[in-house]
Task: inverse folding
């Protein structure tokens, strides 16, 4: 009761201050130019992939359908986190009103959860293509692909509603300094002046279901793929099959290594400088590299791109 009365007399935080990546003015100017270039390049690459997948019938296949979804997600992803990073690099610590911070957190959770399940769906697609090729047209028909993509987006939305509601319901009495470049779960939990055990439990359980669940699906898919590759009679067939899933394997490894380190544990994270570095990997580097890893080195995508250039 005394704790409740004490908190009731404390003014709630109305805004948060994001410290960003660097406090040195000289360093901020260089980083601003670098990250602005990376942001624009990421938007250009992913928009190109979406355009090619939509405008070329030869790319109307399950693999490219999921890649188009992933590119749409990556454009939204960087547009949620990068503006506050760029503002912080341009002006110094960025002041974010409480509702704006919760809004950014909501969309960030939607997108990161959706990406986890999309990557798992893409692993299943590669499993069916390599291990059950004769059944591929039936098992990965358009209705199934739409269902997998829709479930990924809807699942991310539902998880985000629950997690954001829990975090927004906490009391923040001060300080209001977030040692990050966007409003993320762990920095916000560190600032709460109320008991966060229930919120941490919800956060941990959602990490188990979404992060670990989708990772286990991907691992099971690639274990089956590896077994099928070992049973193939020729080295050429093994190389051709492996080349269709190697890029996805690289992205899955990079993405999950960073996200699991930060999110898949119940306690509040204290090593925020390390978290910021890891956050740059999956919020900036991964969306930038995915189009190159997945598509721009793909022969079908290259042919479609050349056809677009000739047509223009």
Result:
């Amino acid at each position: 009761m005394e704790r409740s009365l004490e908190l009731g007399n404390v003014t709630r935080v109305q805004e948060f201050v994001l410290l960003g990546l660097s406090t040195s003015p000289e360093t901020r100017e260089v980083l601003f130019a670098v990250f602005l270039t990376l942001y624009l390049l990421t938007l250009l690459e992913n928009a190109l992939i979406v355009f090619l997948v939509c405008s070329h019938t030869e790319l109307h296949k399950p693999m490219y359908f999921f890649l188009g979804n992933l590119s749409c997600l990556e454009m939204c992803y960087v547009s949620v986190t990068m503006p506050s990073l760029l503002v912080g690099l341009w002006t110094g610590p960025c002041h974010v009103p409480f509702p704006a911070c919760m809004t950014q957190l909501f969309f960030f959770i939607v997108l990161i959860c959706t990406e986890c399940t999309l990557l798992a769906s893409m692993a299943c697609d590669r499993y069916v293509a390599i291990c059950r090729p004769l059944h591929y047209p039936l098992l990965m028909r358009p209705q199934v692909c739409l269902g997998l993509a829709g479930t990924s987006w809807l699942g991310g939305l539902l998880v985000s509603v629950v997690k954001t509601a829990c975090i927004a319901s906490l009391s923040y009495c001060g300080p209001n300094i977030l040692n990050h470049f966007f409003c993320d779960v762990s920095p916000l939990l560190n600032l709460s002046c109320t008991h966060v055990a229930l919120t941490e439990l919800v956060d941990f359980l959602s990490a188990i279901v979404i992060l670990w669940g989708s990772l286990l699906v991907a691992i099971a898919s690639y274990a089956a793929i590896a077994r099928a590759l070992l049973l193939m009679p020729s080295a050429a067939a093994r190389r051709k099959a492996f080349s269709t899933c190697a890029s996805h394997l690289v992205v899955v490894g990079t993405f999950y290594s960073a996200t699991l380190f930060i999110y898949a544990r119940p306690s509040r994270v204290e090593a925020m400088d390390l978290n910021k570095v890891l956050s740059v990997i999956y919020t900036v580097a991964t969306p930038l590299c995915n189009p190159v890893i997945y598509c721009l080195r793909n022969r079908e995508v290259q042919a479609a791109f050349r056809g677009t250039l000739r047509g223009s």
About this structure: Residues 197-231 form the longest helix (35 residues).
